[in-house]
């Protein structure tokens, strides 16, 4: 019995849906990481993302105007998104970010799309989700790539100017993560359409969790097509298909709403029972029957790589800005709380991870802007950036404590805190994304020979053995080279290469090479020892996926520091960069340790340790000194910190504006505050019950001038306003009988 025949019994073949998923995307930087040789030349060659003049004008115009219109506390206490906001979104073409200009759209880059969604999300998750959905996976995206000329000419201009509101229905009660198992069926039949008998589809569906469904005018629908009567002359089971159906079409049910955590974006259900549709409703026409899964997988990059990571980044930037400003202004025991090490530990973690989030956002959208559709990278971005967003938001909530849990217009964290689980759940729950998708897709996409080997193993061709043996020799050579490189870098880590011109970057680039080399060896041995069982060993494969992910994050951190940080800002950016890169590399190394500790074959485990010299933790550590340095930097009003929180656009009177005014007022009088505190310690003046009384005493003692007194009083008023929270009347009557917001909120004046 040949080796190929033996392996045929062990290794499962690639299913049709798996093959379509593999064929739909591109391999990018993750391929070099998986193969043990991270390609920093390709990384540095990626064109730098910048906003065009039109994109910047849109941010400075309609986006800025929208931000001034939004009061998220009003939205969250209403039943619906305010009509005037929805009409503004339509009028200003917020739903046309990806639609070409030739069809009346804005045709913005992925980077601009991400920036717009992220900016809106800093003020309102509900509005951000409403904007992002039509610009990610949905009818617009599918029509652009697969629609007929007639469909594009009819729908795209109407989607661009808001005459049509789209939704896309994929998830069924019986099929969520397993989208390939959807039970919704379209039967090929003859029926009446526009007074004529035509061949079409009789479709029955039941969908849920569909964003914009309650207000949609056109429904994108995924279902399986069957042709039991062979009306199309082929096989019976034709596969997943995507159609576009007007809401007005007989039998279409749209309208019932879900309530996703009280976040007031439109989300709901759609159903239909034996609804007859003509073949013209299929996106791309009859020829695209059965191509739906390939179409969907190909278009998932927008949601996974742009929209959802943008929500994670916006959450992180809000957390950094609000927590750092609050830590600088809020005082306890005579000190700003930002001087306490417990707060500093949390604040440094927020700052470092916010830097990493922005670096990953920029790099991922740069890749998408090159026309690539790297499904593994977008899965990495979706999982890790939404999880990091949740992580840093928890830390910001801890720092702000009681202020963070009181709802009202002044609370900058509450909406994001409630909404963050939504980003983690949609476009594939994060457990699925981490445990099945990242390495599961990565191993087949990134290994140079594995997919060809599996195909040759299950091939029915006469020369299959010959083809298999040829691929096997290449695979063995590849694995031996991986092992030799990993052994050399493990024994002599200083031999790792680095082409960076910056000394502070070189050590990290070398570390990425060392970890990547080990990843390649462990992936090879996992395939050799576990074979097809690796698919079920989700915890093991997820750890290998984590290594890929964290190394991608480290590369993003390096590229951002080299290309997006101005030379004049390098000193201010350094602690952010060091924390973020070390955190990513440490997590990659920890994942390798956990993988080895739990690898089921003892002999192989020991051999892998020897061949990679993987016994101790070698990555640069995040020291207490670095934590203190970064926490201090995060509380300074620097140009680089402004760059890291650029998505936030405070508007007069909102929570961000109140916090920022108090913070900037304090930064402007640090020397005066130091003078007053020094006088208190030396007992030159007496402390008052309130700080304003202390200032009165300082003025009376001629310690400060009247002008300085006025500046300090101004700061103190802004400080008191920033640390207070919103209050309501006893009954908390936020809505009147017509569901209109009632002005019951009281803020410190």
UniProtKB/TrEMBL annotation:
Which ranges carry the Acyl-CoA dehydrogenase/oxidase N-terminal domain? 68-162
Occurrences of domain Acyl-CoA oxidase/dehydrogenase middle (ranges): 167-267
Recorded hits in InterPro entries, A to Z, give:
Acyl-CoA_dehydrogenase, Acyl-CoA_Oxase/DH_mid-dom, Acyl-CoA_Oxase/DH_mid-dom_sf, AcylCo_DH-like_C, AcylCo_DH/oxidase_C, AcylCoA_DH/ox_N, AcylCoA_DH/ox_N_sf, AcylCoA_DH/oxidase_NM_dom_sf
Specify the protein name: Acyl-coenzyme A dehydrogenase
Which Pfam families does the protein's record reference?
ACDH_C (PF09317), Acyl-CoA_dh_1 (PF00441), Acyl-CoA_dh_M (PF02770), Acyl-CoA_dh_N (PF02771)
Q: Where is the Acyl-CoA dehydrogenase/oxidase C-terminal domain?
A: 290-431
The pathway it acts in is: Lipid metabolism; fatty acid beta-oxidation
Reaction equations catalysed: a long-chain 2,3-saturated fatty acyl-CoA + oxidized [electron-transfer flavoprotein] + H(+) = a long-chain (2E)-enoyl-CoA + reduced [electron-transfer flavoprotein]; a medium-chain 2,3-saturated fatty acyl-CoA + oxidized [electron-transfer flavoprotein] + H(+) = a medium-chain (2E)-enoyl-CoA + reduced [electron-transfer flavoprotein]
User: Into which EC class is this enzyme placed?
Assistant: oxidoreductase
Q: Which organism is it from?
A: Pseudoalteromonas amylolytica
